[in-house]
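hiii, so i know i said id send this last week but things got crazy w the move. better late than never?? heres the sequnce for the chain we talked about at the cafe, plus the structure i predicted for it. fair warning i was half asleep when i ran it
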Amino acid sequence: MCGIIAVIRRPSDRPVPGLTGLEADLGLARGHLESACALLESSGLESSGGALDASAEIRLAAAHIGAVDQALRGVPGALALLGDSIAAASLESMASSLSKNIETLESILDTGLVDADHLEELNEALVEVKDAQWAVSSDRIKTARSIAGLLNGLDPATNHAAVTAMHSVQVALSAIDRLEVRGRDSAGLQLFVTNPALDLTAPDVLSLIAQRADERLYRSGAVCVVDGALGFVYKAAAEIGELGDNVAALRRSISEDALLHLAIMGSSAQIAVLGHTRWASVGIISEANAHPLNNIETVSAESRIAAPYVAAAVNGDVDNFRELIEQNSLSIPVEITTDAKVIPALVSRAISASGTELTSDSDSSGALISAFSKTVATFEGSMAIAAHSGTDPNQLLLALRGSGQALYIGLADDSYVVASEPYGVVEEASQYVRLDGETPSDLDNPEASRGQIVALDATQAGSLSGIRRFSYDGSVIEVGAKDLARAEVTTRDIDLGAFPHFLLKEISESPASFRKTLRAKLIERDGVLVVDVGSDALPDSIREKLSAGVLRRVLVIGQGTAAVAGQSLAAALADLASSRLVVEALPATELSGFRLTEDMTETLVIAISQSGTTTDTNRTVDLARSRGAVVISIVNRRGSDLTDRSDGVLYTSDGRDVEMSVASTKAFYAQIAAGFLLAFAIASA
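okay and structure toks below
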């Protein structure tokens, strides 16, 4: 697995916000949070109205903080924060202090003043306010501070184009930091600057560029001139290292690059960013093999100059790359051993072979899309590709085919952010379009039409109208509002914090996750601990069927560690209710493959999943429901696919405690806790 990142944008037409009004919003948010605390402390368990009123106050606070977040997004927000350091510091202090109000609310919930039936309403409201507070404190303010570091002394007040350029760079670097969980042995960025603020005919400028010419291998620090534009590349490669090392190296190189700073200072300078973080599967770990790679082959300088310039990055493998090299007589430098090199080389050749005279934007766009489409159709394997060409710098080309990879197009105010995972786009874009590499557009010709190709137009960045989508057979696939999905996570969910890796982070978070799972569900009444999971988890309709003996069989399903957690639930429930229920734990795939019956109206299926998106579990739930079974899920994601399929839902932790490491720790422990709670509740019913 590897990670692709790309950012293209248009000039922003949104005014720079005033920070004073935003401070007022944060002040109002603090007032609402304090009111929520007072309502909960004064009402307690005897008043459902107090909990509902507190939830409303928390949501009002979230709305005010969310308005600040929206105002500070994108280039206008960065310019506001960089333009007034004193007001920015005050805003940061206010935003950070809101975390104390949130902690107070959390501690009140831990005291047991709220019952299970009202807990989820409060938890959901708290998630909203946590997301908003985090976005302001850790996304917007961090972005502005990071841009200042990349500018390395350039005055943002007089260099708005430079701020715009570095905003794109910062978005890409931040995304690579998060995408490194997909692979981190190397990383690279290409910054393609059109209309650079440099005289490319001046001898001193030409001399600087000549010193950094490395078109053949395109290693870190290389600079190339393409039709009056400048391409800069920064790469890092290391077999051993920590998460974040590569991005730190890239960031340092960019901040110290005086030539880049000169290029982006002009008011008309624009930048397109193409990046990648790699887990080497074909080719050794080296800067020459780090993506993106360009089209330059080992041929004469004249031929290199004549070839249309293309750079590309790939996730997955081009399985037939050796055959393509031989069939097309590609002249690949011996130092480059990755399969990715064939992509830009063949796209460049296809543009040249098209014979189209690129005399207008429409001509260049059409020829580029056609050349790219014809080229990727010759590749075998499961892969995601992003490519950029000097032929039309405003176009970013994407391709996805097969089930092993993914690409998401995030729609921000004035930009497209493309990444291999939703968490690569969510810092800037809360909505995205996901490419589908599997579903054929023509059922009569499934193989040829399977996979999607997308062209993004920077001049319409941030809008659906700038997205053109095709199937692999060339058929147009319309893009509309129905294709927009809202991200279920934020950067808060995937922040590494001060930990060296996610496994240690999540082990450390396990006690809190476990405690939140028990919150308001394991309570003391008259000196005795009792379980009350609430009607959201165990609806009255299911309680009645259990009490009446209509439900006589319980099947606990999951995949992987969720299936193991299910074994503990089944064991506990069998001990508690063995005379009334037949209880069994099994993998979801075993139930769907061998154990379904035509009539399952006597069956309660308990489905366990961390994300709620496990395909095998969800499909099994569909099959069981179609036969009359009722379903309760134990899951850690509100609004996930599994919750939509369930009659009742018991959330682990606070319903949004994402686990990133491969080894399940906090999610597994929380599933154990939730399983025992549900076992007691079912036995009681």
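btw The chain has a mean pLDDT of 91. thought thatd interest u
miss u guys!!
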